[in-house]
């Protein structure tokens, strides 16, 4: 499938925040490297001087490993080869040369390319020097500047507007939609802005609200560092699972879910204040009383759509322990595995509403011959006894399913930090092929779809059918692929804050959901163009069976870049209001998309 139309929410900053605009609206007129209006060398030099010499030219990270490239360097290439697929160790080894620290690198290489054969990848499975191919610039911006504060961001924005240069914003490059890079742009790198501080009694600027404990962190702080800090301070915060994620970026701007979400709400529900530089270059401190419309939109309404965020303050809680039940279930191989898989999904679906409404996270990953099933519950709000009815029914089905592994404890992890850094983070990292290509699609299954036996069965059948579509091009094991790709059923939706659905810009589908169902596949060098296109088409089509049931909402941060009805899918009824706020704060519509996209104005 040759996808040539990524519809992003056009805005000033080319983190390509997936949102778009209602007509009438200004159509951006950006310069490109090939245009005569591209800024002169002296203009770039002036920007460099104003930022203390921090402007750098970017080439793809792996260019030093291509013999045909002018940058080829054997010694530098060895460093690239060492860190090429090592981002699961990057947080523990701060000086390791890995993707999250490299301005020119993203976590998934398809988003570094402008289509098949127009990037600069190495083979994820066996990275080595490339002898017979050309390294293309792809989506890698030609220039990058590391900013240290909001004043730096303001200087960059004003220069970019004056010179009609698009901006991309990057922290770690952990983005399943490729919003951290685009060609002919100036990259704003926030990764060094990683200060973290605890404020025991925080009151938002200009507010008369009662003080609450809070955590303030810079735009470059990633989850691993924040969890380490909160662990040391004996506090907890609502954050995500993959520790390579930068908290202030797409995570909170897309909504943000994690182990505490069913019991405490989305990450976006806990944002108290944001420092942001908007399209006019203004440095704004926004909260519920200062620029409240923008504050509403920033919390879940689309990553990169509103400005360059330089710091965020979120509410915290006292230390929270996490109980867990970690299971491996094996179906009876002598029976029909398709039937058993669908029935097991339906079995969990029977209890899912009760689980999420009780603050319990469920994670089901159903391979055909083995199901990974994890439950996590905050000890402050939830009880292991809530799981007993499910366990009891499962035991009655012993002729169909065997519990091959069971590690269960009501007090398994002393804190959220321990749970995330010792188990949950590494668990999800083990399914991420950092350094390969990757594409996702997803649907948010509402609680209303899991209320009757018939509706639960329909949902289970649709999920399994989606998995079959997903795996069609993978079944024969073509070169450059990694085997079967199961669906992920993530039961970590914000049941606790469902009544606050209109208090943030986040997709209302998140607040209504019982499950977040994700389909995804990875591939690498060795997969030919036909295989790559078939995988992309399969991922895109895997949600069709759920869509046919009227389940159409999706979580943008783990959604499909090629959604056609993306306004409704990612934003629901909030889209029109988000678009109006966009026009208020960015009337010039200075955002772009990646690669060969259709610039459409709404």
Description:
- The chain has helices at 41-50, 74-83, 150-163, 223-233, 247-254, 261-264, 292-298, 337-357, 388-396, 416-429, 453-471, 508-512, 529-541, 544-548, 566-571, 575-585, and strands at residues 55-57, 143-146, 166-170, 185-189, 196-202, 212-218, 235-236, 271-277, 283-286, 308-315, 317-318, 322-331, 361-367, 370-378, 401-413, 437-446, 488-491, 513-523.
- Among the domains are: 41-189, no CATH class; 196-319, 2-Layer Sandwich (Uridine Diphospho-n-acetylenolpyruvylglucosamine Reductase, domain 3); 321-414, Alpha-Beta Plaits (2-Layer Sandwich), CATH 3.30.70.
- It has 16 helices and 18 strands.
- Helix 4 (223-233) packs antiparallel against helix 10 (416-429).
- By secondary structure, it is of the alpha+beta class.
- The strands form four sheets. A seven-stranded antiparallel beta sheet has the order 15-12-14-13-17-18-16.
- The protein is globular and about 75 Å long.
- The chain starts with 40 loop residues before the first helix and ends in a 17-residue tail after the last helix.
């Amino acid at each position: 499938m040759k996808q040539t139309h990524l519809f992003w929410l056009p805005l000033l900053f080319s983190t390509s925040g997936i949102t778009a605009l209602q007509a009438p609206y200004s159509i951006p007129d950006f310069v490109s490297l090939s245009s005569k209006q591209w800024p002169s060398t002296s203009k770039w030099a002036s920007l460099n001087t104003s930022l203390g010499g921090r402007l750098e030219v970017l080439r793809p990270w792996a260019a030093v490993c291509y013999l045909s490239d002018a940058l080829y360097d054997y010694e530098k290439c060895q460093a690239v080869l060492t860190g090429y697929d090592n981002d699961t160790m990057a947080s523990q080894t701060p000086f390791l040369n890995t993707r999250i620290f490299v301005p020119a690198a993203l976590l998934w290489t398809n988003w570094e390319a402008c289509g098949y054969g127009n990037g600069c990848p190495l083979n994820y499975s066996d990275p080595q020097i490339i002898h017979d191919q050309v390294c293309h610039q792809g989506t890698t911006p030609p220039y990058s500047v590391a900013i240290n504060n909001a004043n730096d961001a303001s200087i960059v924005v004003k220069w970019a507007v004056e010179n009609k240069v698009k901006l991309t914003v990057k922290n770690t490059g952990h983005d399943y939609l490729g919003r951290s890079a685009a060609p002919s742009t100036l990259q704003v790198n926030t990764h060094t802005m990683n200060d973290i501080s605890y404020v025991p009694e925080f009151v938002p600027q200009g507010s008369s609200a009662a003080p609450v404990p809070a955590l303030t962190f810079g735009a470059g702080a990633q989850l691993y560092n924040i969890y380490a800090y909160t662990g040391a301070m004996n506090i907890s915060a609502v954050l995500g699972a993959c520790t390579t994620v930068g908290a202030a970026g797409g995570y909170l701007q897309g909504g943000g879910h994690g182990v505490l979400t069913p019991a405490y709400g989305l990450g976006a529900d806990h944002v108290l204040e944001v420092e942001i530089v908007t399209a006019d270059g203004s440095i704004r401190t926004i909260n519920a009383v200062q620029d409240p419309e923008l504050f509403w939109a920033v919390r879940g309404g689309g990553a990169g759509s509103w400005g360059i965020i330089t710091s965020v303050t979120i509410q915290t809680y006292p230390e929270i322990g996490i109980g867990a039940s970690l299971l491996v279930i094996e179906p009876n191989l002598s029976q029909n595995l398709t039937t058993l898989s669908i029935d097991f999904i339906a079995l969990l679906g029977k209890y899912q509403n009760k689980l999420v409404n009780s603050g319990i996270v469920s994670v089901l990953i159903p391979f055909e011959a083995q199901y990974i099933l994890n439950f996590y519950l905050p000890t402050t709000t939830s009880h292991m006894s809530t799981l007993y009815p499910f366990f009891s029914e499962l035991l009655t089905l012993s002729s169909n399913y065997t519990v091959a592994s069971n590690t269960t404890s009501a007090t398994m992890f002393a804190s959220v930090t321990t749970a995330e850094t010792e188990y949950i983070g590494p668990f999800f990292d083990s399914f991420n092929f950092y350094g390969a290509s990757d594409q996702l699609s997803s649907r948010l299954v509402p609680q209303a779809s899991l209320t009757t036996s018939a509706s639960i069965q329909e949902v289970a059948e649709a999920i399994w059918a989606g998995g079959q579509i997903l795996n069609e091009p993978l079944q024969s094991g073509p070169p450059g692929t990694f085997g079967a790709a199961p669906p992920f059923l993530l039961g970590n939706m914000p049941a606790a804050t469902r009544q606050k659905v209109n208090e943030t810009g986040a997709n209302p589908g998140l607040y209504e959901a019982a499950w977040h169902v994700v389909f995804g596949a990875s591939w690498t060098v060795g997969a030919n163009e036909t295989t790559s296109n078939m995988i992309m088409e399969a991922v895109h089509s895997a949600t069709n069976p759920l869509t046919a049931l009227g389940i159409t909402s999706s979580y943008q941060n783990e959604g499909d870049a090629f959604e056609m009805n993306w306004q409704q899918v990612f934003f629901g009824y909030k889209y029109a209001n988000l678009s109006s706020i966009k026009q208020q704060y960015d009337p010039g519509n200075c955002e772009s998309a990646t690669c060969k996209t259709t610039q459409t104005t709404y």
